[in-house]
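Notes taken during the Thursday session

The instructor put the following on the board and asked us to keep it in front of us for the whole hour. The protein is Peptidyl-prolyl cis-trans isomerase. We were told not to look anything up and to reason only from what is written here. First, the residues (150 in total):
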Amino acid sequence: MQVKKGDKVKVHYHGKLTTGETFDSSEGRDPLEFEVGSGMVIKGFDDGVTGMAVGEKKTVNIPVEEAYGPQNPEMLIDMPKDRFPEDMQLEVGMPLVMSDPSGQQFQVVVVEIKEDSVTLDGNHPLAGKDLIFDLELVSIEGGSPLIITP
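Then, after some discussion, the predicted structure tokens were revealed:
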């Protein structure tokens, strides 16, 4: 049986950047469980497991367009320094949480500290990056087995 759209699968994975740096892994945890084609994972990951059989291992290279997309320059926000608490020690690379006008929270990262303002990046941390995943298919649930009768 091979993975197809609509199947629920369990996958062990090791995610790396093209530099070889690991950004996430299921090692030491339960495998990732999701429904193929439902939008629960990035397109390249969905496409990568499609067609795999239980126990199969493979490496998939996922281009930016099938991962988290390119960096969006509109997600760079210049925030006046006086909008931050006085006692906050800002550092480049520091993650912060912001709220949009509707109260929805999202993570930003400090990318530059200027004299009167701080530049925050609201892009996904993996936006603009090609990704590499080592995959191992643990199980497939769903899909109807082919029944042949005389």
